[in-house]
UniProtKB/TrEMBL annotation:
<feature type="domain" description="GP-PDE">
    <location>
        <begin position="4"/>
        <end position="240"/>
    </location>
</feature>
<dbReference type="Pfam" id="PF03009">
    <property type="entry name" value="GDPD"/>
</dbReference>
<dbReference type="GO" id="GO:0008081">
    <property type="term" value="F:phosphoric diester hydrolase activity"/>
</dbReference>
<dbReference type="InterPro" id="IPR030395">
    <property type="entry name" value="GP_PDE_dom"/>
</dbReference>
<dbReference type="GO" id="GO:0006629">
    <property type="term" value="P:lipid metabolic process"/>
</dbReference>
<protein>
    <recommendedName>
        <fullName>GP-PDE domain-containing protein</fullName>
    </recommendedName>
</protein>
<dbReference type="InterPro" id="IPR017946">
    <property type="entry name" value="PLC-like_Pdiesterase_TIM-brl"/>
</dbReference>
Length: 243
């Protein structure tokens, strides 16, 4: 059997409203090996779990997360845009997600993506590290970002942290991999897999996103890529059983 790990992207994004407790519960229910989520900072400095810089696409509200307090964010419906039956879904804090994972005895890998490529949220790295610290005995945490400076900051603050660089094209970031600080993981977009150096020989784990189509899942499984990050963890888990 292939050993590629299945990481649920923004929870189980294909079947639940992304980055909500409902999505993470589903990822736990289907027994994903890992869970990925995205974090930003609210106006009052809370680490909140949501993908975009604004609430516009995935909630009933409008505006930048950095301009809204946690209380304002909590008033928004974060589920109806996906399906009206999820109208109770709210934007969770990172703390709430960590509690959910701990309460459900999760022992896999949590991939926290710090969304610092547009706004440089003050001390978000310190806050995320402090929140995750109490849970490290139970599950492992990988910190990823498209923003190289954030990864460097995480490493400087807590040297034993596992960091991974996200990239979507063959570019400067990728070229820098051998020059700057070491990263423990490469997180490339699936479409650039072929343009990477021979990754089968790499000792650094490759965690590829966002792998949703069956043919793409087959590629990851047959090549024994370390992990696939997918919106459909249940589908990927089923496929892994037969490859
Ligand atoms: O971790 C992979 C993936 O989440 C990166 O892109 O835009 O979905 O956060 P995005
Ligand atoms: Ca992400």
């Amino acid at each position: 059997m292939a050993y590629t790990k299945i990481i649920a992207h923004r929870g189980s994004r294909g079947t639940r409203p992304e980055n909500t407790l409902e999505a993470f519960q589903e990822a736990l229910k289907v027994a994903s090996d890992g869970i990925e989520l995205d974090v930003h900072l609210s106006k009052d400095g809370e680490v909140v779990v949501i993908h975009d810089e604004t609430v516009d696409r995935t909630t009933s509200g409008k505006g930048y997360i950095k301009d809204m307090t946690l209380q304002q964010l909590k008033e928004l419906d974060a589920g109806s845009w996906f399906d009206p039956k999820y109208s109770d879904a709210r934007i969770p804090t990172l703390q709430e997600v960590l509690n959910l994972l701990a309460d459900n005895h999760f022992t896999g890998v949590l991939n926290i993506e710090l969304k610092t490529d547009v706004f440089q949220y003050p001390a978000i790295e310190e806050k995320v590290l402090a929140l995750a610290e109490p849970y490290l005995a139970q599950f492992s945490v990988i910190y990823s970002s498209f923003h190289y400076e954030t990864l460097k900051r995480i490493k400087a603050l807590r040297g034993e942290s596992e960091i991974a660089l996200l990239f979507s094209k063959k570019g400067k970031q990728q070229m820098n991999l051998g020059e700057g600080i070491a990263v423990e993981g490469w997180h490339p977009k699936f479409s650039i897999l072929r343009s990477l150096p021979p990754f089968e020989q790499s000792k650094i784990p490759l965690r590829v996103w966002t792998v949703n189509r069956k043919v793409e899942m087959q590629v990851c499984l047959r090549k024994n890529i370390d992990s696939m990050i997918t919106d459909y963890p249940e589908r990927a888990l089923q496929m892994r059983k037969v490859i």
